[in-house]
Amino acid sequence: MSDNGVIRAGVVGLGWAGQQHMAALHAAEGVELVAVAGKEADARATLAEQYGVATYEDWEELVARGDLDVVSVAVPTYLHAPISIGALRAGAHVLCEKPIARTAAEGQAMVEAAREAGRVLEITFNHRRRGDIEAVRAAVDDGTIGRPYHARAMWLRRAGIPALGSWFTNAEMAGGGPLVDLGVHVLDWTLHLMDEPRVTTVSAVTHAELGPRGLGGSGDVKHGTGSAYEVEDLATVLLRLEGGGSVVLETSWATHRATPDEFGITLYGTEGGADLSVVDYAPAGELTIFSGHGSEQLDTPVTAEAGRGHVAVVDTFLEHVRDPHTWAEHDGTVGLSRAKIVDAAYASAAAGREVSLDENLDIVGGAA
């Protein structure tokens, strides 16, 4: 941090997510956005003019500057671990896009690097910062819902495979399909709303029916690899929770279903419930809170604010960076816990059976 207390920031990744980080960092008080890195020459030129920043083609050059207090990582998943670890070892605090990495093993290496460096590592779960998700959380906190014990949560697309033939559909580069891409958001907001219960068993099934036939694609190929379709296009997961709770999670990139895309959650609690549906990526979804018993049943529509998404995530990350006493608390373990559950889901699907997790969310006895 500079002598005047200004946080010097860099961003790796020039796509939509990276530009969300740039805008939030540029707007934050006491922060100077000084450098960005990415392969796209046109985007580098545009951003250099827009923000007056130094630009680099390679992330190693940005990290090698040695004067950055924070680095945002918003790149394809296979690059999350090497860039985050490199930035942490260079002394920067890191905010990395979800998922933490392709696998829990890579995520564990990132967490260990953060601990060794004594730096903050946080993962961008921006959907829990939506206004409608926060409204459900408020109903949990004020006792309206009581103790949440079951959830049905989903993110479903009809034709939304990000880019057929790109890194998204390459198993080695992406780590998986919609479960690791969209499902990790669904998993995060669900466990967040349920007060972070420990997952004890995972049972999952994955399907790849449309993608391998070249169906269900959306958008232009970016970072193209010419890859065959190697990941699932639909996944369904059952989680058993410590204390008897449960979660059913469903996520797809491509399915023959209603248009447009939809995500949300139905939450059942001992005193009430909630149903949230977000259609076509609306800033705020349709939310109803259920309460009462017998003839006193009450269905309350809630109009939620849009929420601040990436801006809220970046602001919270900066708050943690400014308070050295909290650095050890923010070492990426939340993102790692999500990765372990996703890994367990893929292991269950591959083995065709339920797998059990220990208190560290590691698979008991392997998945074979």
Automatic annotation (TrEMBL):
The keyword Zinc does not apply. Pfam families: GFO_IDH_MocA, GFO_IDH_MocA_C3. Residues 7-123 form the Gfo/Idh/MocA-like oxidoreductase N-terminal domain. The lineage of its organism: Bacteria, Bacillati, Actinomycetota, Actinomycetes, Micrococcales. Residues 134-273 form the GFO/IDH/MocA-like oxidoreductase domain. The keyword Cell wall biogenesis/degradation does not apply. This is Oxidoreductase. InterPro entries: Gfo/Idh/MocA-like_OxRdtase_N, Gfo/Idh/MocA_oxidrdct_glycsds, GFO_IDH_MocA-like_dom, NAD(P)-bd_dom_sf. It comes from the Bacteria. Keywords: NAD, Oxidoreductase.
